[in-house]
Amino acid sequence: MNARTIKSIKTLININMKRFSTILPVLFFSIIILVSCKKKEDEKLPPAINFKSGETYTKDNDTVMVGYRLSFGIQARGTSEKITNLSIKKILENGTVVTMFDTGMYAESLDLNKVFYQNVESKATWVFTVMDRNRMSSEIRRVVYKDLNSQFGGINYYPSIKLGYQNNTTYPHFLNPYTGIVYPTDSANQFFSEIDILCYYILSDGTPSPVLSSPGEMDNSSTEAQTFYPYIASWSTRRYTLWDISVDDTPVSTSDFNAAQNDSLLIVAYHDVWGKKKFRWATSGKIIPFITASGKKGLIHVVNAETFDTGIMEIAVKIQQ
Amino acid sequence: MKNLLPFQFMIFMYRFLFIMLFSPILLCAQNVKTGSMSGTIIDAATGALLPNANIILIPSKSGTTADRNGTFSMKNISPGKYSLQASFLGYKTFRKKIEIVADQNLVVEIHLKDSSFSGKEIVIIAEKEKSLMEQTSRISMITADKIQLAPVQGIPDMIDYSPGVSMSNTMGIFSSKAVVTLRGLPSNDQSRTLVLLDGIPLNKSDEGSVNWNLLNKNTIENIKVTKGPGPAKFGSGAMGGVIELKSKRPEKKLEADVSLDYGSYNTLSTNIGVAGCKKDSLSDREFYWRWNGFGRMSDGYITLPDQYRTEADSIVVPVFLKEFNTGIRAGYSFNKRHSVDVRFSYFDDLRGNGIKVFDNYGAYSKHGTYMGSAAYHGRTGLLKWSARIFQTRENYFRIYEYMKDGEYMLYGADSKRQDAGGDAECILQRFLNHEITTGLNYKQGSVDGKDTYYTSTDIISNAAKMETSAFFIQDEMTFFNEKMRINAGLRYDVARYFDGFFNIQYPSYSLEFYKNFESNSLEEKNWNALCPRFSAQYLFSDSCRIYASVARGFRAPILDDMSRTGKKKGGLKIANPDLKPELITTFECGSDFNILKKIMADVSIFYSIGKDFMYYVSNGDSVNMGYMIAPVFQKQNIGKVEIYGAEAELKYSMKDSLTPFLNYTYTHAQIKEHVIRNSLVDSSLTGKYLTDIPSHKISAGISWKNKWLNLSLSLKYLSSTWINELNAIEEEYLKTDKYPGYVTVNIRADKKVIKNLFVSAMIENIFDKKFITSDVQQSPGRFISGSLRYLF
After folding, report:
1. Using CA atoms, how far apart are residues B291 and A117, in angstroms rounded to an integer?
2. Max CA distance (Å), chain B
């Protein structure tokens, strides 16, 4: 390697060093910006949740009689992502966790009031949890005690009510479970504000399915009741009954149903989280817990359910007074 | 000069420069005296003239190719001594020392001998490809020419025109899980038909499925569909047969294939392929390479059938797609005896699933698939061998988003699927009248999956591994001057299932029932099976043969059926870790013959009996999933299944430019015996027909190649298929027990516009028949596309 070559290499290095010294700060700042951007992107914060304040809501450490109303107001907001889940659970003194409400959603914020009814447990810690799209969650809690002076309430009992399916022209389709009065189409259009229960018959997943439902079904993403009884669309009040569909997993026995003299069985048999808008496969022999729009819990014993759309369903009803 | 037009002036200048540059060379050349050579190439055994043989003069390396009459000539050869070498596929290379004398023409007659075993000669340099008539099973071959002219876009659609093929999820390019099966096996399960790309299995151990979208039809040389369990070398999974795809190998020094397509639903796709090949004819060294890239995007269409769509279905959206695929392949032949081939490819896609409630893309699925392989081929004397290793990794991600009865659900399924393995094969060729093939193959597949819910707290995990290995030996014997061929094979399969688990974390009320199926260590299982195969055929002439075969096929369960419990359309599918492998024994016979001079016909009939057949069974149980009481399904070994059928095909070879075809397939697939596990809840499937199998299928088509326009027209008729396992009425949408049959007609026209530039137009499903595929999805209907393609 001669001197000329070495000189050329040195010149080249010098030129490159100069370029490098210019590029280096630019590169450095670019990296800083990129890293800081990345950091910002990665920074995920959990959603925020809080109780609403007001006299109507149940407060921390409140004491409530069995069967009385518990009211909770909740506000939540997704911080980094949309809120995708809200769950409400009760933790009992023995550590048992009872899910009261669990639903999916996709919302920036949440503002809702939830009503439950005091059950038989002496102390329950209510946990309200929101989770976002990143699966980050936040929770708030309320402790509620049972009033020691609580007594079980009375019930109304109707041992045989016959309801006709949609194509039955003899029996009425609609029921007021408090009074046991059934309404044919004409009077239903007049007394719609009294109606909590209706029935119809479908083939569900290829299986014959007598269905117990309510006029409010059509307001909750379901069209079957409206299809069979289109006139309910014109009712100004459509009452909404929730049916505990977990009955197949935790059945109430017929002997327990027959033995019930007060509302204790009605209260414990109903699982809030399983309360859905209709009860499919309401076949003969099933005992189905429900809760009406006014918060009255009840049990329906399906005495006989025919499996054709002109048939009838014979039921026995026990409901809180 | 001034009067000349500029264009004429340029021509004049070019001519002038050309003469100036090359005149010294031309002058020199004229001063050198040369000789010439001419001759004919003849089959030493039959005396027939052999066209297209290669002739090389060594050491000059100059050469030529014999014309269609088997004659050749070489001029301007410098005088001297040379080694004349002539070679042709299937014949021993001819070598002779010659001398070229100036101003003289040397006339030679070259007699090439068949490369079959004879006396002391043990070197086989070239090899004849076996024709379809020389293989003792029913094979459909789709050549590159047919692939390019076929009036369909996807490879599965192309295969579906062959007799004996069934297909489901026939949504063309929008199918994310197209299934192609053979010989009456249910076309909702890909795991019974083995699919190979250059010998690499594409079926995933997890689901047995094949992602057909990662195949680029522009890179496929041919597709060979072998029906029935067939040769012993094909094992677990080849119950109905084998679909072998062979990639193109570059032939030119540099070649390129660039195309741009645009079609219905705003579908835009582009393909770029560059390849090259460098051959040294003297040393037989060869290096080739290929790079290919393919991309497609489309707005898609709504798959929920029009007639079942209501205003409430506002969450139903088109199944959009975005996909991208790239691959690189390189190979090197050290000489005629040893060669290696390596490749790597990557595929990425994003496909809408037709529902969007709130989330960014709505419900969608996504694959990220890496494939890598290396192969070695060698031969010496009578022996030929090969070895191959491969690895496929698929990162599968899917977002499920839906609203059912007012309940909103959002969750993601993330599965890491991996398949890796290798095989080795050795063929002793032309050993007396035997060709003995033996080999080993091994594959390990695994899945590591997780369903993460966003609308509830649940995280559900499953994982498992499956190892399959096999040893096989096969002897193909020929008698009576190769007119009779007997193939006897034996295959020993071993399979092991291990490291399986299924669990749920943070269960919410609606999925708490999953805890009933939890297992942190599923029991390891080991199976083995001995599968004999036998076939024989007699070749009366080049166009007439009869054949018969009996074979036993083995298939280990797939990981998904053994380990994963999860949602399935219309219910819940629960894992069955007690699944056993299934066995199918198939008897087959057939014939090929000429009806008239130019009409070739082939007919096959087969009878298969499946034992321990794995099939989805609705076991009568149900689970409460919050928004519905869902029926429970499980893959079970249901007992015996009987499948029989017939295939017939007519081909009319008027001339190369006009190739019509017509084929018919009849299939009967029925459950003969269902072993009831629990009589209180199980519904008997005995006597029920298998789903997704049409009893009748007719395909017909014609291709007409001429100097103005290439035209292809095809028609397909499929009869109705049973919708569900119970052959019961589907109540939600169809209100019937069968998907109706349908006919589709496709057409394609290709034209060479200028040198290397081609345009084409295609209409798939001309009459816009929106038939309903499995899972109650409708086909895209008429799809019109146009393409511009540049090849050099």
Report:
1. 69
2. 105
CB contact under 8 A, B405 and A102: no
Percentage of the residues of chain B whose pLDDT score is greater than 90: 55
B153 lies in a domain? no
**How large is the ipTM?**
0.78
Q: What is the pTM of this model?
A: 0.80
Contact check, Cβ <8 Å, A248/B629: yes
- Determine whether the interchain pair B410/A106 forms a contact, defined as Cβ–Cβ distance below 8 Å: yes
- Tokens (6 digits) for B420: 């890796």
Per-window interface: B 602-661 vs A, CB < 8 A: 622, 624, 626-627, 629, 631
Give dist(CA B121, CA A204) in Å, integer.
76
For residues B481 and B485, give the distance between their C-alpha atoms in angstroms, rounded to a whole number.
10
Does the distance separating the beta carbons of B406 and A220 come in below 8 Å?
yes
Q: Output B223 or A36, whichever has higher pLDDT.
A: B223
Q: Which chain B residue's Cα is nearest to A271?
A: B509
Better-predicted residue by pLDDT, B692 or A42: B692
Parts of chain A belonging to CATH 2.60.40.10:
48-146
pLDDT score for B80 = 82
Are the beta carbons of B731 and A204 separated by less than 8 Å?
yes
Tokens of B714: 């095809």
pLDDT of residue A41: 54
What mean pLDDT comes out for the span B776-787? 92
Q: Which residues of chain A lie closer than 8 angstroms to B403, CB-CB?
A: 221
The length of chain A, given as a count of residues: 321
Q: A89 near A107, Cβ under 8 Å? A: no
CATH number at residue B702: 2.40.170.20
Structural domain including B21 reads 1-29
Residues of chain B in contact with residue A283, where contact means CB-CB under 8 angstroms, are none
**Residue B220 lies inside a defined structural domain of this protein:** no
B358 touches chain A (CB under 8 A): yes
Among B294, B250, B292, B290, CA closest to B271: B294
Q: Between residues 288 and 317 of chain A, which touch chain B (CB distance below 8 Å)? A: none
Please give the mean pLDDT across all residues of chain B.
86
Give residues with Cβ within 8 angstroms of B528, minimum separation 6: B492, B493, B494, B495
Specify if B38 maps to a domain.
no
Q: What is the domain count for chain B?
A: 2
Is the pLDDT at B628 greater than 80? The verdict is no
- Helix (H) or strand (E) holding B699, with range, is strand B696-705
**What tokens appear for B176 in the block?**
């994310």
- pLDDT average per 10 residues of sequence, chain A (321 residues): 58 55 58 52 87 94 92 96 96 94 95 92 96 96 94 92 94 94 91 94 80 88 84 92 80 89 90 88 92 93 93 95 88
Q: Supply the pLDDT for residue B123.
A: 36
What is the pLDDT at residue A31?
Answer: 57
A276 to chain B: nearest residue by CA? B627
What is the full DSSP assignment across B43-63?
A: ETTT--B-TT-EEEEETT--E
Within-domain flag for B360: yes
Q: Which CATH topology does A48-146 take?
A: Immunoglobulin-like (2.60.40)
> Which chain A residue is nearest to residue B511, measuring alpha carbons?
A102
Q: What percent of chain B has pLDDT over 70?
A: 90
